[in-house]
Design goal:
about 20% strand, 11 strands, Diguanylate_Cyclase, 2 domains, single chain, Rossmann fold, five-stranded parallel sheet, alpha/beta, about 325 residues, Alpha-Beta Plaits, EC 2.7.7.65, elongated, four-stranded antiparallel sheet
Length: about 325
């Protein structure tokens, strides 16, 4: 290697003010506790066209400088003096910042090599080495690190896309509530937890009355808005931890934590509908029929069976109700 450069070229904190500042140059942190070797290495790195971000003489200092300077590569002597050696320092740096490391060592023993390899370095040079070996090690390390970053980014993008597809497959496009599949997947798990921990649950089956008349007289776009308004009323009624879904058509379902009965949430839903109906600008009046059933923690009823019980209860309410529901300038009976 070349003659060592003057120690005056390195500031007391390890920074090198004479290093090229080109944003294209790879920035390298040197960690070497032998001053002459560090100076010689610094001069070689600069001559090869890289930028020296700083020089550290011990492991703890290297960890702090890597955090502060965020170099693109660390060239680390394995046998550092101090509280931690180079292998330990490299492991801490990679855990904190995923900065690639090239090890330098005068040791050739297998135990040291084995410890070093377990930290996942991207290069390993045994002193003394030639300048061309250093350049090759740096270029290979940078290339491999960039390839690893690109791979992680692709994998993360694929994971996000997969999560999005799963989410879309579980969400009703019109109302943004869970769809039938999404409800069953979550409800099955909630039911298992409730039975194991003896939590009380209530299942609510909600039918939007008069949707056909809204579609026939006002159009399907207005009917879609009526469904979205019903979904908004349900969101305002139930907690985020409850599972609310549109099963399809004019049918909605919710699985909610309750105290002793379902009457409180039933009345709260009625109140939310009243608030929506009091607002101006709607050519229809929202009205629903509600059926409920309590989940018996000691029973083995399936979600399908619980929905059937709540559905039957809803039809009892629908048959028992009377009067006329107004939708714009037309009427519909409660049974429609």
């Amino acid at each position: 290697m070349t003659e060592p450069i003057s120690t005056s070229d390195v500031t007391p904190d390890g920074h090198n003010p004479e290093s090229p500042e080109s944003t294209d140059a790879v920035s390298i942190l040197i960690v070497e506790d032998e001053g002459i070797v560090a100076q010689d290495l610094q001069e070689t790195i600069v001559r090869l066209g890289y930028r020296v971000a700083g020089v550290a003489g011990e492991g703890v200092q290297a960890v702090y400088m890597a955090d502060e300077l965020r170099p693109q590569l660390v060239i680390m002597d394995v046998g550092l003096r101090g509280d931690i050696d180079g292998i330990q320092a490299a492991q801490m740096i990679q855990e904190r910042a995923r900065i690639p490391v090239i090890f330098l060592t005068g040791h050739r023993d297998l135990d040291t090599l084995d410890r070093a390899v377990r930290t996942g370095p991207l290069g390993y040079l045994v002193k003394p080495f030639q300048e061309v070996e250093l350049r090759c090690s740096i270029e290979v390390a940078i290339h491999k690190h960039r390839a690893e970053i690109a791979t992680r980014e692709r994998e993360e993008a694929l994971r996000r896309n997969a999560d999005l597809l799963v989410s879309l497959s579980l969400v009703d496009e019109l109302t943004q509530l869970r769809n039938r599949r999404g409800f069953f997947e979550l409800a099955e798990q909630a039911l298992k937890v409730a039975r194991r921990e003896r939590h009380m649950l209530g299942l609510f089956f909600v039918d939007l009355n008069g949707l056909k008349q809204i579609n026939d007289h006002l159009g399907h776009l207005v009917g879609d808005q009526a469904l979205r308004d019903t979904a908004d009323a349900l969101r305002s009624t139930f907690r985020e931890s409850d599972i609310v879904a549109r099963l399809g058509g004019d049918e909605f379902v919710a699985l909610a934590h309750v105290q002793n009965d379902t009457s409180t949430l039933r009345e709260r839903l009625r109140e939310q509908l009243a608030v929506l109906n009091a607002g101006a600008g709607r050519p229809y009046k929202l009205d629903v029929s509600i059926g409920t059933t309590l989940v018996n923690a000691a029973s083995n009823e399936t979600i399908e069976a619980l929905i059937a019980l709540a559905d039957a209860d809803m039809y009892e309410e629908k048959r028992a109700s009377s009067g006329i529901r107004y939708v714009g300038d037309f009427t519909s009976t409660s049974g429609v």
